[in-house]
Design brief:
This protein is α/β, with parallel strands linked by helices. The two termini are 25 Å apart. It is globular. It has 12 helices and 22 strands. Strands 1-2-3-13-4-14-20-16-18 form a 9-stranded mixed sheet, sandwiched between helices. A 6-stranded antiparallel sheet has the order 8-7-10-5-6-9, with helices on one face. A 3-stranded antiparallel sheet has the order 11-12-22. The structure holds zinc ion. Residues 93, 254-255, 284, 332-333 line the site of zinc ion (ZN).
Amino acid sequence: MLQPALVWDRLTAQERKEVFVFAEGYKDFLNRAKTEREAVTAIERHAQLSGFKEAHASPSHKKLYKVFKHKAIGLAVRGKMPPQEGLKIIVSHVDAPRLDLKQNPLYEEVDLALFKTHYYGGIKKYQWVSCPLALHGKIIRKDGSALDLTVGEDENDPVFTIADLLPHLARKTQYEKKLGDAVIGEKLNALAGSIPYPDREAQERVKLQILDYLHRTFGLIEEDFISAEIELVPAGKARDVGWDKSLTGAYGQDDRICAYTSLKAITEIEQPPVTVLALFLDKEEIGSEGNTSAKSRFLEDMVAAVLSHSGVTVEEHVIREALMHSHAISADVNGALDPDYQEVHEKRNAAKLGYGVCVTKFTGTGGKYASSDANAEYVGMIRRLFNQNAIVWQTGEIGKVDEGGGGTVAKFLASYGLEIIDCGTPLLGMHSPLEISSKADTYMTYKAYKVFLSKKWG
Ligand SMILES: [Zn+2]
């Protein structure tokens, strides 16, 4: 039987300190990056501070980045080898499950103003009621001007919330139903106000009062909600969890934990043997659909930028050649063995909190449907690389074969013919308003990504 190791047992006293320092930077990133747009802004800022230049602005710089539609970003560091001979690529995603406001969200019922929501990604709906929610959004006004709005993160801000039904009256409406049906999507309506408009003759006075406030404060009219992306996310900051502060509890760690660790890794690399690329994509949580997702071909655009910066004529066959010879990590989280629900996992093949970065050969559901299954040869290369560089790692699949499952962006990148494997941090409470990670695993994920990007294959 393989004997996995707890990261904590392997760390020196100095490394233990580094683990906690690293976690502070991570929490700060989580607090600033609660939406995909905010994540892209935070990543761009970190890249700029680390000496990266926008690809168009600086044609011969060694460290470059490209932002795509404010929702995806790519960073590259040119290596010693020509890029046509292959790159090393890490791909994470910066979108997270949440409640989006509908395009016609504001209404009034029983003298209360409410927002209708439409959930995004895989949520357990009952987890999103009776908790404080913050509003983060981009609104395009009638005249085309844009408004970025964040309400609910400052302690003096109001929050929004979905009031749950009292237990006294929940017997038929909730208790007798299956858990997944007990809170339904059309009842995820968030409280937005209760003071009526002064004119007693007016219709829907509470809604009118909110519209009046939005107009006076932000110059908004009701129709502006149609050209808007407004997300309700759990309000508040990332926290330490446990007496020993060894765990991080926060919203959106899937997959900003892999985004942050790969960002830190690539921005600390000066002269890699091969050109390295970190991509931060959107829309993974809804199957990588849409023009900012892993299906958007932004990767090809990024490779084209790298090629032209290296003085190579950009042609489709050259981009294909570069990608065919590339090695990639699909940097996404994995569900850790849950102490209370161990029966859904197959313990010999489950990731555990505290045992380091998790290498997952394949994802998908049932008979490996919708998965990218890494080649044994490539798994061997990753394994040797990690072992030679003191990376504490484990292997794990998401759960029992017939229990469920899920996919990542790996299969979309695999279509280029590159080698790719899933490798990321295990989480407890994935997709919940308070996901849990181990600070030791977070640090080890960063170490693993840095080794992958900066070292030659052993
Ligand atoms: Zn994910």
